[in-house]
Amino acid sequence: MDNNHVVLETKNLNVFYGNFLAIKDVNFQVFRNQITAIIGPSGCGKSTLLRSFNRMNELVPSARSEGKILFNGEDIYDPTIDPVEVRRKIGMVFQKPNPFPKSIYENIAWGLKINGFRGSKSEMDDLVEQALRGAALWDEVKDKLDQSGLSLSGGQQQRLCIARAIAIKPEVILMDEPASALDPIATLKIEDLMRELKENYTIVIVTHNMQEAARVSDYTAMMMLTGEGERSGTVIEFDRTNIIFTRPKDKRTEDYITGRFG
Amino acid sequence: MTTTIQSLKSQNHLKRDREKKIVRALTFVFALLSVGTTAGIIYELLNETILFFREVSIIEFFTDTRWTPLFASKRFGVLPLVNGTLLVAAGAMLVAVPLGLLAAIFLSEYASERLRRILKPILEILAGIPTVVYGYFALLFITPILRDLFPETQIFNAASASIAMGFMILPLMASVSEDALSAVPRSLREAAYAMGATKFETATQVVLPAALSGVAAAFILAVSRAIGETMIVAIAAGQQPKLTLNPLQSVETMTAYIVQVSLGDTPHQSIAYKTIFAVGMLLFVMTLVMNIISYFVTKRFREKYE
Asked: What is the ipTM of this complex?
């Protein structure tokens, strides 16, 4: 793979919570306009790894990290880098839909305002519509933009959260099990949406659901607990998704995806 | 040796049943006691209030602008007392709301877990200071400062009582607001941070609006505390029922009036004696309405996140 296509790259990444080494020595790459899935058993550090890409981990007071994460070649953990700026370029969608208790319109407009939007009302209207269309939600909500975001169904709320994230035009969208709280139909909608979004964005998704990883992702990173007492998670294998799911090199990956583990 | 479930059941069941009945009866008596006390107070208040309104028309009570039941020419307009009460309470809220909210935001959003564990109990100790202490604090400390700044300030004045009362209610305002802010789910803060919001933007534009009904409940509770507060105003605000909006003047609140009459040698069953029940009744209705509003606001706030 051409290095120009690498958007995110971790180099010997370790993340600690206090003295506990949660993920250890992670080296992998995320390619532009691709969907990269992170899979593995519960508690192996998938979310920790995902949250280190937009520096959300540091909101936990005891968290610290070593090593590097390069975003377009620049270390986002460099002391001169403002985490707020990182998060504007690398958006996030969470496991449970968490729209703000504001109107549907405001849910999207707010992110634009805090990111320095200084245009007119009609420009704002356009951007809100664009974001909602981008998240395949416009047709369902265009007549009730002033209703609370919390009045929507779970699947719609999650798409509102995606719309909110893409409104500020990040390069990367991190998704932490975005469909785990949704029913199968809403899940399929989110997956379709992800395939559309990768035209313009790079997506990293954490998922428990291996079928989902197989269905939507282009690359897959397999994480597993290793090290002393098997307490620290690391990426044991990283490859194209079809290779991971058909000809994994690591025995543990094979055991996991065929259901002989965890 | 084996014990059958049947034998266990028969022994313990009866004993536990009896215990349950006794505990239930006891707690019922105590619950009844507090409800009964309230009912008794309302009954007594109502009784005397009705007697009062046999002698004074309710229209005069609510429309006359002078309150002189202790003078030779008696007038029974409660408005000056209501004015005094609301003036002092409003001043207290001017102090308590901004400071209380800032304290709450600091504790919930900025302070480390350790600092919060130290600061919150201290704040709650502040709530335990007897109000008489605040009263003399107002009279002997705040009033001289006010008189230095504004020489026209009267010795007894609304502003001084307001400021002291503001500090007295501050812990209540801060503590209840902080509970409301802390109850806002972490996921909302994370959503805001993930959009590139700063800590300040998150606290003021996401967390605070989400906790608004809880903060409103804190506000209403604080207002009803301010309206009912007695000792501070009796000591520092004066005893001159006046229709004024000037906080540097001496005023009299409803509670201070009740204290004044109760301390004096007002003959039992005289009309002056009955006024304190009418004023007390009005005070009771005002705080009751406040508490009812706060009950509904708090209920709405709970439904949202639990």
From this structure: 0.90
